[in-house]
Amino acid sequence: MTNITAPKIPDGEKVDFDDIHRKRQEKDLSELQSLIEAHFIQRKKEEEELIALVNRIEKRRAERAEQQRVRAEREKERQARMAEEKERKEQEEQRKKQDEDAKKKKALSNMTQQYSAGQKSESRRGGKKQTEREKKKKILAERRKPLNVDHLNEEKLKEKASELWQWLMGLEAEKFDLSEKLKRQKYDINQLLARVQDHQNAKGRGKGKMGGRLR
Fold it and tell me: What are the distances in angstroms from CA 100 to CA 86, 91, 168, 181?
């Protein structure tokens, strides 16, 4: 508290104590108003800083929630693609197996019928004069071994069918393998392009988010 000295009163002059008291009150009131204004200014500043802090916290929380949602959605899509791809491969393998079994059975049936028809035709011709074409057929028929499949069990019959199938479809095996290889290469290329596109999209979205994050 500052020391208050009594004002000097000139000799022979009248002192107005009321005026001195009024001026002191005015001064005190002015100082009090200044203090009040400074208090409210500081309080308003603190409130604004608090609001800004809360907004930053909420923004960061929203960004984290969005990032988690995006990651969860991508993982869900990845799992769905894997399950779909697995199911597609299983169905394709099953379809191929069924097609191969059906072709083997059909080939075995056709060969059996052709062999039986050839034997009957040869027996009907008997002693007739044979042409060059008939001689060739006879030679080929003699080279063929009888099927003798009546006494075979299921396992041996499958082995015989497989052997006949390989003999019948030998020329088409390489074509089939090349066709399947081409399909696989196209599939692998499409998968690689899709991964590259996903990576580029994710990279672009990542840059956009980093620009808006609070440091």
Answer: 21, 14, 13, 18
pLDDT band at residue 149 under the 50/70/90 scheme? low
At 72-94, the pLDDT tens digits run 999 999 999 999 999 999 999 99
> pTM for the full model?
0.30
Number of H helices, E strands in the chain: 4, 0
Residues 113 and 94: beta-carbon distance below 8 Å: no
Out of 39-48, 78-87, 105-114, 164-173, pick the least confident: 164-173
Say how many C-beta atoms besides its own lie within 10 A of residue 83's C-beta: 10
- CA gap 111, 109 in Å, rounded: 6
